[in-house]
Amino acid sequence: MKRMVLGLFAASLFSLPVMAEELTLYKPIDILGHDYQLQEDSYESTDTAGGLRHYVCADCGDEYSYETDPLVYVTNPKTGEPVDQANCVNPLLPDWEHVPDGEPQVYWSKEDKEWRVYLYGSHDQSGESFCGTDYVTWSAPVYDLSDWRYEGVILDITDGSTYGGQVLYAPDCAYDLQTDSYYMISNQVFDASVLRVASSPAGPFDETKAVWTGSFKTTYDPSIYIENGTIYITGACRKTEESITDADVFAAVTADGFTEGKGQMAVIYQLKEDPTEGDGIEKISWLPNDERIFTPIYEGPSLYGFCEDLGVYLYLYVSVETGADGTDYNSGIGYLWTDDLMEGPWHYGSNGVEGDTVESEEGQSIVGNHGIEFNAHQSVILFYFFVCS
Ligand SMILES: [Zn+2]
């Protein structure tokens, strides 16, 4: 999400924030019906060898298992031809569909019996203005990124939401291998970030049943990462008129001594094993927390998580800088990295996309916005999009 001026204006039209503690939360077993746990005879796919996932419900003993393909396809299973991504060109989606703030994730599809990329993001329903009241997802097999399929609406708050908010900003989704389930964090403007769980990557996520809710102000454009069953939620927070009213943000930004730029920072919440317990937060980490250089975090943070190839945790974000004419602009996609997710220190990696701001022409402003990289078929692909207004 960009366009905060519009957002702040819209805020005055909305109802008062819903207090998280008033809301009913649901344990995953109450939503999914079972408490499936990964068994020790399971193993994950490698590039060249398939995997096995075996689950037993800790509650009722129900069990199932399934095999997964090697991660890298040499031949296209549908055509028998060598994999060729030559037909994968932009735009990926039909011209009537708008899913910006893209957070693509690679998951095994039990229905299709193949690795697929699922694209999560905001949904510019009208195509004329940003965001809307539902999320949709699209998917494509990793061996043919030109073959996108509509997976339908995965969350809908058009008729109102149990957890507040009237518009949905940028979401994110993560797979929990330990329980074979999918978690989605939605940004329900301007009330809360809401965590829900489903048994399929295409949801649907039950609007009325949340696992956890967090402050909208500290988890702007939230992102989710799950490691060994532990859920981490991150979001951008700003030293601005809206966020400065949040005591936590104020204390953190002040303590961190950020006086340059806009004092943006981000937060990572490590959730409790049972996120419905109390505020659900096990640990909080503010970042960046080491280098006193201007790190222009603006919005759209994306916690990539641990990158095996690099041996570090990666964190992407949309940066903002002030131009020569004094106006702020989204200047690119930057990244931070660390060896220790919750303790840091985080190191500034500068902008990852060069030249992603485009000259305006005929009254249009065009800026780079929101990106995340993912691994598919031995390639790291950086997703980002341009906003034209
Ligand atoms: Zn069960």
CATH superfamily: Glycosyl hydrolase domain, family 43
Kindly provide the radius of gyration, computed on alpha-carbon positions and rounded to a whole number of angstroms: 20 Å
Question: Count the strands?
Answer: 22
**What is the CATH-assigned architecture?**
5 Propeller
What is the CATH topology assignment?
Tachylectin-2, Chain A
Q: List low-pLDDT spans.
A: 1-21, 354-369, 375-381, 384-389
CATH level-1 class: Mainly Beta
**Percent in strands:** 35-45%
User: Which hetero ligands occur in this complex?
Assistant: zinc ion
- The helix/strand series, from N terminus to C terminus, equals HHEEEEEEEEEEEEEHEEEEEEEEE
Shape: globular
Helix content: under 10%
Largest sheet: 4 strands, antiparallel
Give me some keywords for this one.
binds zinc ion; four-stranded antiparallel sheet; 3 helices; mainly beta; disordered C terminus; Tachylectin-2, Chain A
